[in-house]
Design goal:
GO cellular component, one term: nucleus
Strand content: under 5%
Number of strands: 0
CATH architecture of the largest domain: Orthogonal Bundle
Number of helices: 8
Protein name: HMG box domain-containing protein
Keywords: Coiled coil, DNA-binding, Nucleus
Pfam family, one: HMG_box_2
Structural class: mainly alpha
CATH topology of the largest domain: DNA Binding (I), subunit A
Order of helices and strands: HHHHHHHH
GO biological process, one term: regulation of transcription by RNA polymerase II
């Protein structure tokens, strides 16, 4: 291998390492360890000064702080941008100081959360598209019908969700049949209504 070829190979390797290092530096970390935005730093300080001291109600303080940020010049925002970078570096250092197993676990959980949010965003987009087209609302499935029935009238439905979900898993096919039939009926009605709209 000639000197030139060796130099080229070393250059390519160095470039790849630099690129990988850049990717790692900007890798999205779990919640609480990512760099805040300059606006977030500003808003936090403003709300702490106003809401924390009782000078303004939370909603009013938020609107005022947001308007103040919008009216600020780039020069005025520099201080908060610098602080945001410093906080980001400190948070990354804190994350990197954690045991490898803990970091992997947190990264996995963060990735699952992002995927869940992305999935929900797609579902919301599809729902908006259906509404824009005037299509009927998607019918609930058997499980949703069961949960609706069992949580109705509960003083605090959220507290009973886990219990009801657990009960659903232990129910026999015969016990679920009532909800399955109702779900099938609603699905049929939905398909018929959808077909009528699509023919127009």
């Amino acid at each position: 291998m000639s000197t030139i070829q060796l130099f080229r190979r070393l250059s390519v390797t160095a470039s790849r390492c630099a690129l990988e290092a850049t990717k790692q530096a900007h890798k999205r970390l779990p919640k609480g360890f990512n760099r805040p935005t300059a606006m977030a730093v500003f808003m936090q300080q403003e709300l702490k000064n106003k809401v924390g001291t009782g000078k303004a109600a939370p909603n009013t303080a938020f609107v005022e702080a947001k308007n103040k940020w919008t009216s600020m010049s780039a020069e005025q925002k520099k201080h908060y941008e610098t602080e945001a970078v410093q906080r980001g570096e400190k948070r990354r250092e804190e994350f990197n100081s954690l045991p490898e197993a803990k970091k992997e676990e947190m990264l996995k959980e963060a990735q699952e959360t992002r995927e869940k949010h992305a999935k929900n965003a797609k579902l919301r987009e599809k729902r908006r598209e259906r509404e824009a087209k005037g299509l009927p609302k998607l019918p609930p499935n058997a499980y949703a019908l069961y949960m609706k029935e069992h949580l109705a009238g509960k003083p605090s439905p959220v507290e009973h969700m886990a219990e009801s979900a657990k009960k659903w898993k232990t129910m026999s096919a015969a016990q679920k049949e009532k909800y399955e039939k109702e779900a099938e009926h609603l699905k049929k009605e939905y398909e018929e209504a959808k077909a009528k709209l699509e023919k127009k």
